[in-house]
Amino acid sequence: MNNAGDSVYYFNNFRLWISHDFYFDYTSTEHCFLSYNIPDMQCLKAKEGYTIYLNTVIKPDECINYSTKQAAVIYNSYTMECL
User: Fold this and answer.
1) Span 35-51, mean pLDDT?
2) pLDDT confidence of 2, banded at 50, 70, 90?
3) What's the start-to-end Cα distance of the chain, in Å?
4) In degrees rounded to 5, what are phi and psi of residue 35?
5) What span, in angstroms and rounded, lies between the C-alpha atoms of 26 and 6?
6) I need a surface site. Which of 18, 31, 62, 66 has the fewest CB within 10 A?
7) Are the C-beta atoms of residues 35 and 47 closer than 8 Å to each other?
8) pLDDT value at position 8?
9) Residues 73, 61: contact at Cβ < 8 Å?
């Protein structure tokens, strides 16, 4: 993914390569702020009030829905992710 000829940019601690297609969404229609690989729209940064868990953008209170008998999944408000 990071070839010697790729240029690397940094955006809010994300490493971005110019060989990928990135999409920034400033509207209220999508829950993802920064996506890459336009056909697949893989979310890198969720908008405020959302988080990413298992490549899915969800609301923080939905983290508990991913808990199993072996492990509890909770939202960490400091890191803004489900753990």
Assistant:
1) 84
2) very low
3) 27
4) -125, 160
5) 27
6) 18
7) no
8) 60
9) no
Inform me whether the pLDDT recorded for 68 exceeds 80: yes
Q: Specify the amino acid at residue 54.
A: L
10: its two tokens: 């940094």
Taking a C-beta distance cutoff of 8 angstroms, is the pair 25, 33 a contact? Answer: yes
pLDDT reported for residue 67: 94
Q: Comparing C-alpha atoms, which of 52, 55, 5, 48 is closest to residue 28?
A: 48
Neighbour tally for 23: CB within 10 Å: 15
Buried b (16+ CB within 10 A) or exposed e, 36-67: beeeeeebbbbbeebbbbeeebbebebbeeee
d(CA 67, CA 10): 33
Question: Residue 1 has what pLDDT?
Answer: 44
Is residue 82 packed enough to be buried (19+ CB in 10 Å), middle (13-18) or exposed (0-12)? buried
